[in-house]
Amino acid sequence: MVAFVKLGGFCEHLAEGVHNLGSNTLTVAFSNTAPGSESTPPTGATSTCVLANVTQVAYTYCSSRVVTISSSSQSAGTYSLVLADLLASATGGNVGPFQYVYLYNDTPTSPADPLIGYWDLGSATTINDGDAKLLNFAATAITIGP
Amino acid sequence: MPTEILRPNSNVTQTQMTGGYADIDETSASDTDFAYPNANGSCVLEVGLSDPAGFALNTVAPTIRYRLLRKTQTGGAPGAGSPTAQLHLYQGAVLIASDTARSFGGGATDFSWSPTITAVTDFTDLRLRMTETVSGNPVMAISFAEVEVSYAEALDLASGSFAFAGGDLTVSTVTYAALDGASFAFAGGDLDTIDKTFRFGSGARKARSRARRRVF
């Protein structure tokens, strides 16, 4: 299981009302460029924490990347975001290779497509034509708590 | 693409059949045990399959392998004749696909079948069903069956966990001391008034000119 890396800008975006994790359209993006190696790393200032700073792979043959939000709630002061596993398949050609899976919010327009964080798979993977990868989110994808 | 094998693990329907899933669930085909019709008429053996461990794909045709052999209705050695049997794939009570009816007069024979299974929505409820209409001997027995399905490789993504810590709040008590006897005097500067007289007459223009040049 690969660890989630929170992007610093997400914290400020969350605090300043950019995200509504319960109702916005959360989506995954695939990249084969290390976040720190982007021309404008999204790991920097809050203003850089947007999808435009991520070098994505082509999605020509990729299935939908929109994530289903199973639940968004808090209990005893701990917020939990539960995401349904996403089956990403390739039809007509390959998708990738990619090593980084970003989670971003496709709903906001200012800033557009703010990033939440990413997972580093450790090595590049490709969804071959006719094949699929299951993005197996943890039981609680994001926890915010004391 | 990774695959896994689903094997018979339960009996769903046994109509005029001797034997069941336990006779056809071996990992390598073996004719030492088998299931077979034991009476004339419509004979059915329907077995449940093990659940896939991975996220099985209905977009990729599985490979279904099975082995048929001729027997008598008591499981003995067959005489001449070519009985016919047919294998079907079900999801619950819903027919997903049917293989070609198989008929032969020789020894045990292996078959392989790759049906379209896009209609499958629940891989935990798949069943293999062998049907046969029997009229005397020999009958078609089955000694092995398995279903190889493809599944999606899982990318296991760990949870993101954030903690918010608030800074301490210190409430201090402030005591104001009374200030006695303080007095303040304001001293204003003197105000001077200057009388100025302007004369206008025959020399008015010169006087006004002088007045403009004068600095007050």
Question: How would you summarize the topology of this molecule?
Answer:
The complex is a heterodimer of chains A (146) and B (216).
Chain A: E1 4-6, H1 8-15, E2 26-31, E3 69-75, E4 78-83, E5 86-89, E6 95-105, E7 115-127, E8 132-137, E9 142-145
Antiparallel strand pairs in A: 1-7, 2-6, 3-4, 4-9, 5-8, 6-7
Chain B: E1 3-6, E2 8-15, E3 17-18, E4 36-37, E5 41-49, E6 55-56, E7 63-71, E8 84-91, E9 94-98, E10 102-103, E11 109-113, E12 126-134, E13 139-157, E14 160-163, H1 204-213
Antiparallel strand pairs in B: 1-13, 2-5, 3-4, 5-12, 6-13, 7-11, 7-13, 8-9, 8-10, 8-12
Characterization of the model:
The complex is a heterodimer of chains A (146) and B (216). A 4-stranded antiparallel β-sheet of chain A has the order 1-7-6-2. In chain A, strands 3-4-9 form a 3-stranded antiparallel β-sheet, with no helix packed on it. Chain A has a two-stranded antiparallel ribbon with strand order 5-8. Chain A has one helix spanning 8-15; strands at residues 4-6, 26-31, 69-75, 78-83, 86-89, 95-105, 115-127, 132-137, 142-145. Chain A is mostly beta strands and 146 residues long. Chain A starts with a strand and ends with a strand. Chain A has 1 helix and 9 strands; from the N terminus they run βαββββββββ. Chain A is 5% helix and 41% strand. Chain B has 216 residues and is mainly β. Chain B contains 1 helix and 14 strands. Chain B has one helix spanning 204-213; strands at residues 3-6, 8-15, 17-18, 36-37, 41-49, 55-56, 63-71, 84-91, 94-98, 102-103, 109-113, 126-134, 139-157, 160-163. In chain B, the strands form 3 sheets. In chain B, strands 2, 5, 8, 9, 10 and 12 form a 6-stranded antiparallel β-sheet that branches. In chain B, strands 1, 6, 7, 11 and 13 form a 5-stranded antiparallel β-sheet that branches. In chain B, a hairpin with a 2-residue loop joins strand 8 (84-91) and strand 9 (94-98). The A-B interface holds A 1-4, 6, 11, 85, 87, 89, 101, 116-117, 119, 121, 125, 128, 130-146 and B 1, 54-55, 57, 59-60, 152-165.
